[in-house]
Amino acid sequence: AAGVSPSTVTRVIQNKSTISDETKKRVRKAMKELNYHPNLNARSLVSSYTQVIGLVLPDDSDAFYQNPFFPSVLRGIAQVASENHYA
């Protein structure tokens, strides 16, 4: 769809400076049209970097969620994680 090689698509996803802005734009447009999203599991196998955040919650999670402070902290964590491509 974008007329480029798979390795060029990979470099666009990695936002490499060696790829021209025009090519990046064309590849990202094709990705959007095809509803393509990189597979985070495959990426983590290659890079040994998962971009996954784990949280440890108390056993009594009902009490945890009844306090309005903690859900707002979780929303903040989720927002920043999402903005930085974490799962």
From TrEMBL:
<keyword id="KW-0238">DNA-binding</keyword>
<dbReference type="Pfam" id="PF00356">
    <property type="entry name" value="LacI"/>
</dbReference>
<keyword id="KW-0805">Transcription regulation</keyword>
<dbReference type="InterPro" id="IPR010982">
    <property type="entry name" value="Lambda_DNA-bd_dom_sf"/>
</dbReference>
<dbReference type="InterPro" id="IPR000843">
    <property type="entry name" value="HTH_LacI"/>
</dbReference>
<dbReference type="GO" id="GO:0000976">
    <property type="term" value="F:transcription cis-regulatory region binding"/>
</dbReference>
<feature type="domain" description="HTH lacI-type">
    <location>
        <begin position="1"/>
        <end position="47"/>
    </location>
</feature>
<dbReference type="GO" id="GO:0003700">
    <property type="term" value="F:DNA-binding transcription factor activity"/>
</dbReference>
<protein>
    <submittedName>
        <fullName>LacI family DNA-binding transcriptional regulator</fullName>
    </submittedName>
</protein>
<keyword id="KW-0804">Transcription</keyword>
